[in-house]
């Protein structure tokens, strides 16, 4: 019997299929090839197509929505056709509770980062926006941040972490997928190889732990969204080097190891420490709920 909140093991390939297809279906290479065909290629095509045929900056949110929907559809098709099971990790059942928990955790966690930076004299608020400014920020930032969080969590947690876990085990899969997540941000403003590694240790592990706790996408997506939204749209701190509109106009000063420099507070040692503590708590909860048992969760 499966544990509550875990995924069922993928069904074996039908014996009616030719032997060579059964062998591909059962192989690790076949799994990654299927993920490439069902998920990666359609997403890359959507990314290129929207840029070519929808270049207007005003269509940014629509482009992001299209890419997110194609990615979700590709993942669903992969799970249904290749793993031959229902995509419980995308199920709306119970999603509300997980989304709310993620929003609260992400918002409180980054607010704690800012509070500590302010106490150390690193962060200061210069002006406070109006209610109209807040509405404008919500309209501008929510769609972009939500699409980004959904896309990144599906790619790095539901695909990379989950598939690596089958071959490497949960510890190595978490480490490798988290490092890949951090290094994927090296093209951002202010990023360095060290910051890429730190981002993986800080947020890659945090979001990965949130996925392992539920074995579903909603908690980690909401946590990711709230972290980025509170950081960029509320406190006007660069999100992984990318600045945008914000309600509170604030600034970071001080040494780079403490302020994060041009990359933002995610490059701060304060952020790293608080995220690692939170990651430890989430992993402990995941262990207590039996989520590390790959026989019943993958």
The proportion of residues forming helix, as a percent range, comes to 55-70%
Radius of gyration: 20 Å
- The overall pLDDT, averaged over residues, is 89
Number of strands: 2
DSSP strand (E) fraction? under 5%
* Uncertain stretches: 1-13
Class by alpha and beta content: mainly alpha
What do these coordinates show?
The chain has 298 residues and is mainly α. 68% of the residues lie in helices and 4% in strands. The protein has 11 helices and 2 strands. The protein has helices at residues 19-26, 28-53, 60-83, 95-119, 131-168, 170-183, 193-214, 218-234, 256-259, 269-288, 294-297, and strands spanning 123-128, 248-252. Strands 1-2 form a two-stranded antiparallel sheet. Helix 4 runs antiparallel to helix 10. The longest helix has 38 residues, at 131-168. Residues 1-13 have low confidence and may be disordered.
What is the gist of this entry?
The protein has helices at 19-26, 28-53, 60-83, 95-119, 131-168, 170-183, 193-214, 218-234, 256-259, 269-288, 294-297, and strands at 123-128, 248-252. It is mostly helical and 298 residues long.
Characteristic key phrases:
298 residues, mainly alpha, 68% helix, 2 strands
Mind sketching the topology for me?
Blueprint: H1 19-26, H2 28-53, H3 60-83, H4 95-119, E1 123-128, H5 131-168, H6 170-183, H7 193-214, H8 218-234, E2 248-252, H9 256-259, H10 269-288, H11 294-297
Antiparallel strand pairs: 1-2
Helix pairs in contact: 1-2, 2-3, 3-5, 4-8, 4-10, 5-6, 5-8, 6-7, 7-8, 7-10
